[in-house]
Amino acid sequence: MTDSTRMRALALGAALLAPGLAPGLAQAANWLLLQGSEPEQGTRALRPWGFAQLAYQRGEDTPIPVGGWTGQGMAANRLGPDKRAAERWQLHRLRLGVRGRVPGGAPLDYLVAVEAGDNGATREGDELQLIDASLSYRIDPALRLRLGQFKPPGSEEALRPAPRQPYFAVSTAVDQLLNETFLDHDGSDPLDANTPRGPRSLYHDIGAQLFGVLPGGGPWAHSYALMLGNGNGVARLDDDSHKDLYLYWSSEHVEGGRGAARQGTKLFGWWQQGRRELDGADPGSHLRTRAGAGVIHQAARWRLSGEYLVGRGMILAGSDGGAVPGSWNNAATRIAGRNLLPEGEAEGWYLEGGWRLAPRTWLDLRYDRYDRGTESAADHRRFTTWTLGLRYRIDRHWQVMANYQWREAEAPGLDARADANRLLAALDDRLALQLQFVY
């Protein structure tokens, strides 16, 4: 099976799991509907909403042990977005928005939100970033049209709203493959840090989406989405003639609950493809493809979910020597730049679950693995992470969260004594604490 065939098969896999093959399943949240439209009954014209997340993170700040940047700070052990420290308090996110139905009687819904804070969208906390700005028109329950800037259909972790995330950070594969960093070059210029042209995508795009829930499924609900987007992230116009295509399907069996608290199992698959333009040593248009499939089961007192993702083209490949991008090496002959594998391949997966210890307390555990540069032994890097989490909901507005990550990395195609493996062995574990307010 070719790579392109495998990706299409993976994206359609969940759709082929007919109800008769999976009896007794139940439904998880439908993020397409929850974020893309308002309820048909009782919708207000203006509904303010938002959240704030205050975070503390800490690692050991182990320095680079080998190579031209020996003794300097290791980028993977520093905290984003600026990579200046391994320990800090930060206002991670402050998002303010309004949503509702446009007055006048037409089934036209809107969503607008801006974000501040210290994260990949706001770039060191000194900007106010437009995150969501969309209009959705309900033709009927099976066909809705959404226009503007919003999250395209894709991974469950990427689609889930930030306040609903059970962990402080998403899995490595989802972050690296879907939270896109926009670069102009592949990083081969020794005197160029290859600075991103704007914020990361934050799993957003600008475009048009058709989506809905198909009728006549009985206890089953079959959802779909088809989107054309610019493929250029948030708050930026298209900079080339190419469009990204997004496809999504999920099959659910309804058991109980409603909205974001619905209980049950969802089978889903998705596929994305577009082109990116590069200058420099590897100029031209490069195909970027992402696909995945997974399942999530949500019960009253426990949940279990997993997802498998693959990517081809435009694979992020770390920084030179593992150093903070923009840092000169010790000999002052080279600048650490961000690297990219324009024709590279990657895959990853996660398996996670949670147990409700008490009415307001959840214990969470996730294992995730990410393999990048799998097309060659020299480029192959493997990252594995165990995340243990505890969440306590103080009331309907306030929640506290504690996460601890055990992180490991290796270059499996190279000798254990190779510089790459000595560098990756210095990857630190990390503690994260978060206080969240939602209204």
UniProtKB/TrEMBL annotation:
Keywords: Signal. InterPro entries: Porin_dom_sf (IPR023614), Porin_O/P (IPR010870). Gene3D superfamilies: Porin. Residues 1-28 form the signal peptide. It comes from the Bacteria. This is Phosphate-selective porin O/P.
